[in-house]
Amino acid sequence: MRILTAAQTRQADQATIQEENSSSAALMERAATALTEWILARLSPPEADPTLVFCGPGNNGGDGLVVARQLHQAGFTVQVFALPAEGYSPDFDANRQRLPAGLALQTLSAAALPVIAPDALVVDALFGTGLSRPLTGLAAAVVQHLNQAPARVVAVDMPSGLLADASQPAASPVVRARHTVSFELPKLAFLLPQNAAYVGRWHTVPIGLSRQFLAEVETNMYFTDTALLAGRLPARDQFGHKGTYGHALLLAGSRGKIGAAVLAAQACLRSGVGLLTVRTPAVGYDILQTSAPEAMALTDPAPDFLSELPELTPYSAVGMGPGIDKAEETKHVLEQLLRHAKVPLVLDADALNLLGANPELLQLLPADTILTPHPKEFERLAGPARDDYHRLELLREFCRLHRCYTVLKGAHTCLGTPAGELYFNSTGNPGMATGGSGDVLTGILTALRAQHLPALDAALLGIYAHGRAGDLAARHTGQAGLIAGDLTRFIGPALQELTTPDTF
Ligand SMILES: NC(=O)C1=CN([C@@H]2O[C@H](COP(=O)(O)OP(=O)(O)OC[C@H]3O[C@@H](n4cnc5c(N)ncnc54)[C@H](OP(=O)(O)O)[C@@H]3O)[C@@H](O)[C@H]2O)[C@H](O)CC1
Ligand SMILES: [K+]
Asked: Are 246 and 450 in contact (CB under 8 A)?
């Protein structure tokens, strides 16, 4: 699905209203009803605690008024408050009129902010996508009051004070929500680690925004879901043989890190590659032949680290990096690889650190190479970022400049493309923050590239399947108990889910 800016979200509202020939009040009723239902599915009145709804002057506040009315009608004990303002939005005013007699709108004042009991449910409807400047005065005081309260906060659409798609002004407070329930699509802000403490757990509820608008709106940001992946992974050919599915080469491992080569190899084998050869230093031979017998071992003459690039002609893709060393000889192998490879490349770990330390090598990067840095490795490649938004700008620029696909690993791993698009992944869990996870990803990506998938498809599918394998594995191991080896067992099922079914 697409990720829209705040301005595009407003356009989506307008397009929907026009298409349906309805009104903004009707759309507000629908959006707020979806939110009320989200709450009702989790809390029911007999066990419900006092509910306090805080409204701002715009349509976010209007949503709050609808939710307050509906929760009151559902039997909740509701109090509803509004910030004083010179003017309120028309739909705010309309919904103020619709508050039932037993539910009076109370105006907030700095001198008497309402007491919030620890067991209260707080609905934050102060500001949404219309936030236009830093919060000051009473609005800021109310946000700080909510943040000091021990109660659960559910934010309507956005935690108030947070911008949908840009950095916060320093010193402007933001609501720290337990849950953020947003309409139809996630906002960019939800996907960035720096906002996690404000957004809490985020959810989207469908509100029937115009399908046509959402399919046609110009954007360069996407949230990777199964719909976006449909048709990208073909089913295996009835008459296919191992030659059909490519021959991958992994350049991996050094003394003490042969496990990384093993994990990448197992992941590569589980991702459908026809043949796999693994180049490790001599120390890796017995280990690899024992723990990944399906792979061919092609050992380097050096005992402890990679020192020579093998002949590349047999291979349809090459992955380099898991567990390698930063020795001068290994740097030479990387340089030779960049100079001579005529097949797709995947670079990870110390292959990236070698690039970062020798930026002249970046000029040799073949087009459509996939790089898989974590934020620290990315910093070594592209320089330090001021914050998460700036890091995305650096990512776009780096991919454009070097015509490469860069997989910035994290909670919502972000793929940057040479065309300037950003794809945020939707699978995976914190259990995957464990040694070897990245080696598994390199194995998957190398296998998909070896099978002749285009770089974009391979990267999107590989990232998603890696996270999905983590989610499937965690059902058995729990998140804390998850180790990278568990991921390899679930790559097959994850890819199977994504495979285009044979249709009649
Ligand atoms: N499809 C949807 O997503 C739908 C969303 N809905 C809800 O509508 C809001 C957006 O509503 P909007 O009225 O555009 O904006 P807000 O309610 O967030 O805020 C606008 C008002 O707040 C004032 N404002 C802005 N910044 C500040 C500030 N720092 N301090 C004080 N006041 C501020 C602003 O005043 P201006 O002077 O800037 O005009 C406005 O008065 C969206 O988030 C959803 O909750 C719809 O309900 C339907 C579908
Ligand atoms: K809000």
From this structure: yes
